Amino acid sequence: MSKQNFSRRKFIAGSGLLLIEASLRLKGATLPKMADEPIIDAHQHVHYLSRTNEQLLAHQRAMGVTTTILQPAGSPANRASTLFGFGNGLQAEAWGNKECYAFAKQYPKEFLFGSNEVPDLPGAVGEIEKYLKMGAVVIGESKFGIECDAPEMQRLYRLAQEYNVPIMMHWQYKKYNYGFKKFHKMLEKYPRVNFIGHSMTWWANIDKNNNDPTIMYPKGPVTPGGYTDRLLSDYPNVFGDLSAGSGLNAFTRDEAHGKEFMKKHQDKLIFGSDCTDTSGHSPTCIGANMIAEIRKLCTDKKVERKLLYENAKKLFRI
C-alpha cells in the first residue's frame, strides 16, 4: 500500500469517527471518556437509590473508572440485624447478588462483583459461597446491625480466609457493625483475612480527639493517632476504602493532615466512589471529587497510582 493511500484511509476513518461523535452529541448522548490511566473503583452499587443500569454505566465511564467492583446487598429480611427492614438494600435500595452478577457479566471488561448476605440468616454462608465460587472478589458490603465479633460474623471471616477474598465493613456507630473499638481483636484472631474499613465511624476515628461518636462527619483539624490511624499502622491485614461522603470529608476537613495520611498509609488505601450521582462529574459527584482530592494531595505520582489503582489490583487479585 502506498503512503498516500494509507494517509487517505486514515483521514477517512478519522472523519467517520468525528461524524459518529457529532451525531451522538446531536442526539444528546455522551461518549465514554477514555481513561489515560486505569482506575479501580472498589465500591459501587446496582440500583443505588433507583439509579438505572444505564446511568451507572455512564457514571463510571464519566469518572474515568476502568474497573468497578459492585457491592451487593443481602436478602430483604425483617430482623434485628437489618434494623427490622430499615437496612434492607443496604439502606439505599441497592440490589443483591443476582443483579450484581448479571450486570458484571454483561460488562465483563469493566465490572466485577462481590457476594453478600444478612449474616444471621439461615444459609447465609451457603449463599455467599455460591457467588464466591462464581468469581466474587469480595464479601460485602457488610452493613448489618450485629456485633463485629458475633459468631455469625466470624463465620464470614473464616469464609473470606478460605476463599482468599477481603471483606468490606461499613462502620456506623450504634447502627451497623457494633463494637468498633474491639475490632482489633478480630484482626488479631484472623490475620490472614484482609478487612476493608469504610463509612462514618471508620473515617471519623482518624482523629485522636474524636471524642463524640455520634458526630458522623466531624469538621476541623485532625490530630493524628486516632483508632483508625492506629489500625492501619499496626495491622497488615486492614485497609481503608476512601469512598462516600465520609471518606471525602476525612480529607477535605484538614488537607494538610490528609496529605500526610495518604503518604503514610499509601499501601493501605483504595479508591471507591459509593455515590448516588448520575453525572460522574464535579461538583455533584462524590466519586469524581474524591479522585480530584487524591490527585491534589498526592504530590508523588507513585502514591496517587497506588490509591487509584495498584493497591486495589493487588488486594482484589485483579
UniProtKB/TrEMBL annotation:
The keyword Lyase applies. Keywords: Lyase. The keyword Lyase applies. This is Amidohydrolase.
